[in-house]
Amino acid sequence: METKVLDGGLATELDFAGFDINDDPLWSARLLASNPAAIKDVHKSFLSAGSDVIITATYQASVPGFQEYLGVSVEEAHKLMDQGVKIALQACQEFCKEQDEEDSPGRRHPIVAGSVGPYGACLHDASEYTGEYVDSMTIEELQRWHRPRLGQLITSGVDVVAIETIPAAKEAAALVQLLREFPNTRAWVTFSCKDGLHTCHGESFAQVLADVLKSPQVFAAGANCCMPEHVAPSLKKARELCADPKKFFVVYPNSGEKWDVGTGWHGKADCRPLCSYAPEWLELGARWIGGCCRTRPNDIRDIKTSIEQWNKTSKE
């Protein structure tokens, strides 16, 4: 199974570039309207660092959110999501052109993944970290909310869909069922987890991975936006239930820093480099690896090096 390097924290790079989005209800998606060039610059920075897969800036994008916080129409909201895909595709095209001009060895043709974040992220109340909202919603209600964005990303031409940071089994089930309306679409599903064994909502991590991987449209599953030390325990248990040799794990945790509502991110000095975890994740069946919050181009470059070294060693 071919290994690939994902990108890192899009919003992290925008934050470091001076954009005040951390308390914005649209988060990085606001820049689809206000500064799309800044998003493309971040995409290209990750491509230059070695990313094979670029994830669109649509994690916190929604038609209701754009209507409420930007005052746009339904049609204009769809155009903004289309913009998110076009920006990522343009970044990849420009990167490929630069490789051709430089006659770069080992040319890469990046993949664009359309980000589908959880319903809770757009509530802007931190409920995406608990998934409690699924307790009062039906499968049909979750699908009704997700359908416009998912459909637009697919119509706009993403290569695959990234159903990511899902805190609860119920929401994942709703989205996997919704994929059937788009039968030619392939997706990965990654969950947020509160420890090495459970999703943020409390279900068995191994079981939810096994469940979503039963779908013929889901080619990979795993974890993202979690502590890196939770990944290996999660995969060890999941590997016992996920036996399809054609499918694999995808992981892209946070840097290891901790978030405090009052003071923000802290603890960088105490973090192990993400690249140091990569060999164990690969041994456990992860094949697509990257980073989420607070992971930067240098982290992705180091992950790429670690994966290349593992590939070389595993072939010897």
Provide a descriptive summary of the structure in words.
The protein is built from 11 helices and 10 strands. The two termini are about 15 Å apart. It is globular, with a radius of gyration of 18 Å. The protein is of the alpha/beta class and about 325 residues long.
In short:
With 316 residues, the protein is of the alpha/beta class.
What are the defining features of this structure?
single chain; 316 residues; alpha/beta; 8-stranded parallel β-sheet; two-stranded antiparallel sheet; globular
Strand and helix map with partners:
Blueprint: E1 4-5, H1 10-16, H2 31-34, H3 36-49, E2 53-55, H4 63-70, H5 74-102, E3 111-116, H6 139-156, E4 160-166, H7 169-178, E5 187-191, H8 205-212, E6 218-224, H9 231-241, E7 248-252, E8 258-260, E9 264-266, H10 278-283, E10 286-289, H11 297-315
Parallel strand pairs: 1-10, 2-3, 3-4, 4-5, 5-6, 6-7, 7-10
Antiparallel strand pairs: 8-9
Helix pairs in contact: 3-5, 3-11, 5-6, 6-7, 8-9
Low-confidence stretches: none
Separation, N- and C-terminal Cα atoms: 16 Å
Q: Class by helix and strand content?
A: alpha/beta
Beta strands, count: 10
Tally of alpha and pi helices: 11
Assembly of the depicted chains: single chain
Computed CA radius of gyration, to the nearest angstrom: 18 Å
**What is the H-and-E element order?**
EHHHEHHEHEHEHEHEEEHEH
Query: What is the overall silhouette?
Result: globular
Strand arrangement in the largest pleated sheet = 1-10-7-6-5-4-3-2
Largest sheet: 8 strands, parallel
Average residue pLDDT: 94
- Helical fraction equals 40-55%
Query: Strand fraction band?
Result: 5-15%
